[in-house]
Amino acid sequence: MSELEIDAIVFDVLGTLVDEPTGLRAGIRELAPAFDDSGIERLLSLWQRCIDREQRRILDGARPYVTTELLDQEAARLVADAAGVDDPAAVAALALSGRRLPPWPDAVAGLARLAERFPLIGLSNASRTALLELNAHAGLRWHQALSAEDARTYKPDPAVYELAVAVSGRPPERLLMVAAHAWDLRGAQRLGLRTAYVARPVGDPPALADRFDLYADGLAGLADQLDRSLSVQ
């Protein structure tokens, strides 16, 4: 048996295929145009900490599951309060900025190339509605897009990765999870998926103890490695 034999590729979306911070910054600038760059970064950090904290509380059982739509609304209100903005329409617009995220330059072409060889599954913490709009805005094309909303929890809970296993109809070790976040890949590993780390400026880099199956600087490099793997099977 060759070193890496896979039947489908599972992709994280936020941060891996789309540039989440850039999209959120644009929304914050629309909300608070008078803020300088450092002020925008402080507000962005406030948003990110809010989302991370609340998703962690849900994972820890300290809060019942709610979708990212509600979490984004909470983060938007928090950021608006910090910026001194009380216009409900502006807050609502900011809450939707997480659905208008630009793709990384290699994302669309990279997915198209990989789709010639493998079924592609998107697996995101974004809600079903948010994922639909996010994919449409960024021009991402899937054979199947799955939301953690269907598991009523968030990655790295194993139940989220199980969605991809169930849809694929294949054992976990025949799926390759691709992400720019080491924590996401560790979650997939715990369920038995193979893993590929793709470096992004905003990702979570691997720790020294991490052992993933593939490492790539982008989707072209990942496709090259997979082509070589297939050629020796």
From TrEMBL:
<comment type="similarity">
    <text>Belongs to the HAD-like hydrolase superfamily. S-2-haloalkanoic acid dehalogenase family.</text>
</comment>
<dbReference type="InterPro" id="IPR006328">
    <property type="entry name" value="2-HAD"/>
</dbReference>
<protein>
    <submittedName>
        <fullName>Haloacid dehalogenase type II</fullName>
    </submittedName>
</protein>
<dbReference type="InterPro" id="IPR006439">
    <property type="entry name" value="HAD-SF_hydro_IA"/>
</dbReference>
<dbReference type="InterPro" id="IPR036412">
    <property type="entry name" value="HAD-like_sf"/>
</dbReference>
<dbReference type="Pfam" id="PF00702">
    <property type="entry name" value="Hydrolase"/>
</dbReference>
<dbReference type="InterPro" id="IPR051540">
    <property type="entry name" value="S-2-haloacid_dehalogenase"/>
</dbReference>
<dbReference type="InterPro" id="IPR023198">
    <property type="entry name" value="PGP-like_dom2"/>
</dbReference>
<dbReference type="InterPro" id="IPR023214">
    <property type="entry name" value="HAD_sf"/>
</dbReference>
<keyword id="KW-0378">Hydrolase</keyword>
